[in-house]
Design goal:
The complex is a heterodimer. Chain A is α/β, with parallel strands linked by helices. Chain A has 7 helices and 12 strands. In chain B, helix 4 links the parallel strand 3 and strand 4. In chain B, the strands form 2 sheets. A 6-stranded mixed sheet of chain B has the order 1-8-7-4-3-2. In chain B, strands 6-5-9 form a 3-stranded antiparallel sheet. Classes of the chains: A alpha/beta, B alpha/beta. Bound molecules: zinc ion (ZN). Zinc ion binds next to strand 12 and helix 6 of chain A.
Chain lengths: 289, 193
Amino acid sequence: MSDYNFAYLDEQTKRMIRRAILKGLAIPGYQVPFASREMPMPYGWGTGGVQVSAATLTPDDTLKVIDQGADDTTNAVSIRKFFERTANVGTTEETSKASVIQTRHRIPEEDLREDQILVYQVPIPEPLRFLEPSEVETRKMHSLEEYGLMHVKLYEDIAQHGAIATSYAYPVKVEGRYVMDPSPIPKFDNPKMEMAAIQLFGAGREQRIYALPPYTQVVSLDFEDYPFEASKAEHACDLCAAEDSYLDEVIMDDAGGRMFVCSDTDYCASRRKAGHVGAQGTNLEEDAA
Amino acid sequence: MRADALKGGFADAPVDAAHGFRAAMNAMARPGYIETLRGAVPPAPVSVAAGSLLLTLCDPETPLYLAGAHDCQDMRDWVAFHIGAPVVARQEALFVLGAWDAVLPLEGYALGTSEYPDQSATLIVEMDALGGGGAILRGPGIKDTATLSLPDDISLFQRNATLFPLGLDFFFTAGDQVAALPRTTKVTHEEVV
Ligand SMILES: [Zn+2]
């Protein structure tokens, strides 16, 4: 423990990140610049989220880390171990037992509470970047609320595909002011962003932090004649029979066998423990016997 | 510098600051919530909560304005030893500490710019007491409404909110308690029907 700074980062760096988080909460959806530090993991492993978590955690916390909904990927496991070692926090895979949840690309299915904090790993924080490569220009566009191009792009989608094709990182407008990238969560998760928990977003390579206080208004961009739809596969989970969860399609064998399963592994496991059995699922108690 | 200035910092800086930040963040994310914030023992007249906020958030990169009675030699020495923030004039400050009457008027503090609205001052306003009741709050961080015992002239907060996305953000401190009011909060006296 004494070989490390608490939560790895030095105190001055944590203060700088903490100040950025507070300004982010005061200006919901606005991207606060911060001086990102080298972390003992490569970019793409969520160094922005890790720095935000490092500035947020206390030794009293219980941390959960998910990667595309799963607690057991290499990335999630290594981040969890990193904070067990450097911040002396407890860890859990159960959403309801976590006080801080760091996530890559999903929002847990279970409703989060007021005493929880959700930290997102963000690769590209700028929702206008694919329309305008210059940071100077996008910053100006945000300052002038010049979001017309974004609507044009979404409308071109409709003209080409008959629907808005964007299914991940679907842009939102926060409190009627800033257009924000929700990170590459499926658009199925967008409506959950109006939640009771504090949401913090960290982009390491791009050096941006942004935030949503609880109950902040978050509206997915859409059109009157093409309203936003939080779509998912038209299926129930083959393991736990959930009809309300986001599903991953899993290829089972070379013969093309496939099944749909909850992307949120904790949600699926807790439903199976409660006795729910999907079309290709087995009763967990029989498994154990 | 008096020997007293060497005392009153965090006993365990990394952990005390982590708890301090969580209290500050919970307060700023949920206007009207009153959080407990301890660890610092700053010189009079500075409260435990205000001293702990400074230790948690300020350093040589954050110019600090000490207003009125909070600008005393003991406090300047304490800031110099524990925080290292340059003590500056009001218009240069990123953090401001003082009683309400002393920090007024609100004109002249950094409001941020349209491209960098985060480059704005955070005011730490010392109060006699904090409590619910008083002004009614609405906005991000608040489910329906919240209440907070703000200083009387709420028109100043209403005006600040009209500047959004520019504006000032406030912490209110009393003893070991802290609450906050970001620029997004809409403040009224009466329940709007
Ligand atoms: Zn399932």
